[in-house]
Design goal:
Elements (H helix, E strand, L loop, with lengths): L3 E9 L6 H12 L9 H27 L6 H14 L6 E7 L4 H10 L4 E6 L6 H18 L4 E4 L7 H16 L4 E7 L3 H7 L24 H16 L6 E6 L12 H10 L4 E5 L8 H17 L4 E4 L7 H19 L12
Parallel strand pairs: 1-2, 1-3, 3-4, 5-6, 5-7, 7-8
Helix pairs in contact: 1-2, 4-5, 6-8, 6-11, 9-10
């Protein structure tokens, strides 16, 4: 009889906020060819001669400013989510990080010890991107082939517009929405424009067709920008946010090439200068609060908005272990268990949006 299990995978975090640990984490993260997709020699030179010497000390200070007694916020919150989901499902469940600890390899070996033969991989990213969703699946498959070759793997598809995911976002934002706002800013993690084009297997749609993100195309299945816009549209429609009172921006860019626009810091300035005084900020690309939400948005974003003339900056926490999001994951896992019971565990789509 099949023994199914679940593997939740989030991005990862340094072991501490010390520069040495942050450097080690950044080295693993930025050495991934799906994150910095340059030829290996160029990637090594960029990483070791420019990025690590400059970024590791700065990132260490940023991590220190948000570090909790129990550890990294992302790891602490991911563990809380894993515990909450485990309490609702009757399947073995492990949490892993794509980079850092706990590793995917250790999670697979623990599941193997429990005689598991089928695993639902749940990348904790609502949207597809080569540098997030894709690299998780590639790494799990690579390690499973080497360490647990008999394991059958199924992936939860990106859930960017799944009705239950949108409902969970709205439920988590309800207390702030009910207080009123002048404008809602949806801030997503950015990507290099080159990554968007690379994800378009047709090489003929993304950024090459007018209104490419709203013109129907199979390319949207792997288009991060189209999926973030879909999340925003569905949230605004279901939450009743009027046109003109919300916008989208992209954060966390790196210098050196074109990234998705508008940039979050520029949009914060624009909104304040346009007369927005009470701003509500939502970060739907992140399911767990982390450095990018707790430091980049909550500290620097707030400062940017207030310095430009805004008066009130209200940030919605990420989904974290909100009961509605736990319920969403519970239902997807139950669907997986039902597929296993029906002998169809390799099916690749679970309740597609």
């Amino acid at each position: 009889m099949a023994t199914p299990a679940v593997l939740l995978v989030n991005l990862g975090t340094p072991a501490s906020s010390e520069i040495s640990d942050v450097r080690r984490y950044l080295r693993e993260f930025l050495s991934d060819p799906r994150v910095i997709d340059l030829p290996a020699p160029l990637r090594w030179l960029l990483l070791h001669c420019i990025v690590l010497p400059r970024r590791a000390p700065r990132s260490a200070r940023a991590y220190a400013s948000v570090w909790q007694t129990a550890g990294s916020p992302l790891l602490v919150l991911s563990r809380k989510l894993a515990r909450a989901v485990s309490e609702r499902v009757d399947l073995p469940l492990e949490l892993a990080m794509r980079y850092g600890e706990p590793t995917i390899a250790s999670a697979l070996l623990r599941l193997n010890e429990r005689s598991v033969d089928r695993v639902l991989i749940v990348p904790l990213y609502p949207h597809y991107a080569m540098s997030s969703y894709e690299t998780v699946l590639a790494r799990v498959h690579e390690l499973a082939k080497a360490l647990t070759p008999g394991l059958k793997l199924t992936a939860l598809p990106p859930f960017f517009a799944h009705p239950e995911y949108i409902d969970a976002l709205i439920a988590s934002a309800a207390p702030q929405l009910e207080r009123g706002y002048d404008h809602v800013l949806f801030s997503y993690h950015g990507l290099p424009v080159r990554h968007l084009r690379k994800a378009d297997s047709s090489r003929m749609h993304c950024t090459r067709v007018g209104d490419c993100c709203t013109s129907p195309s199979p390319a949207h299945g792997t288009c991060y920008r189209a999926q973030t816009l879909a999340t925003t549209r569905e949230f605004a429609r279901k939450a009743g946010i009027p046109e003109g009172r919300y916008s989208v921006a992209y954060q966390s860019r790196l210098a050196g090439e074109a990234w998705m626009q508008p940039y979050t810091d520029a949009e914060l300035t624009r909104l304040a200068q346009a007369g927005v005084r009470r701003l509500l900020v939502i970060t739907p690309a992140f399911v767990s609060d982390c450095l990018e939400t707790l430091e980049e948005v909550a500290v620097h974003g707030r400062s940017t908005f207030l310095a430009a003339g805004g008066r009130e900056f209200i940030q919605v926490p990420c989904l974290n272990d909100h009961p509605s999001f736990v319920g969403f994951l519970e239902h997807r896992i139950q669907e997986f268990a039902a597929l296993c019971a029906g002998g169809n565990a390799l099916r690749q789509a679970l309740s597609p949006p």
